[in-house]
Fold this protein.
Amino acid sequence: MTAQILDGKRIAGEIREDVAKAVAVFVADGAPAPCLAAVLVGEDPASQVYVRNKSRACEKAGIQGRTHRLPADAGQDELMSLVEELNTDANVNGILVQLPLPTDAAVKYDEREILDAIDPLKDVDAFSPVNVGLLMQGRPRFLPCTPHGIVQLLSRSNLSIAGKNVCVVGRSDIVGKPMAMMLAQKTGSCGPEFANATVTIAHSRTTDLAAVCRDADCLIAAVGQPEMITGDMIKPGAIVIDVGINRVGEKLVGDVAFDEAKEIASAITPVPGGVGPLTIAMLLHNTLAAAKLQSGR
Ligand code: GUN
């Protein structure tokens, strides 16, 4: 079997067009253009690229994309002050502090304290405890961008996962945990066919990871380990979603050994061009949602 390649880039393009149209309607109704403030601390090359891409995508959708840059050694207090300033700035609808914060600077950052300080109504990443709690209870305000992008990808590719075994490999706050929660719920942003899964969360301490993965009708790899999911860990005909973006020399590779996996899976996301573009599309969606919430429209 050769798997269907799930074109995340194309699907993200459709979502971005939908958001751009909805932004135009919102603005035509008299509202100011939504505004996303991204905060970039330090010079990490990958983070610089991500933030630049987010800002460009905003502008294309009619959203104002601001970038606030701080030097790596700015320190916790200066970063907290900037977050406070953005919280109270009525022109800013969404705040995103690009992660990871520098770990090699002379100063140390308390990431949790920074994320907790973001006004939950402007928390377009959906990282704040309030927004995580609302998601957990099945009444989300904002959905975290990468897991939401994956649900959109499944839905727009007509790949129902209701009643199926889904294995999420990785338990991060950004992807693994919210992904598992969203897929286990009775319904979600794309309806019950793209929820209601029997979800397993696997991680570095899972006994016989290969066997757990092989039991999955849908395998979602979000561990950040280049090509660690090999062909023998995939059930024939499974859907494989690769969240990893790992730089190996000059090349970007996922968490899944793509060439092996595509011969076993029924559908698979490539890296690049799979999940990555969806994260940005859903960020635009959340920024418009935040602007609507704040304006009461
Ligand atoms: N770093 C990697 N992914 C993300 C993300 O989704 N949001 C933020 N703020 N930082 C990230």
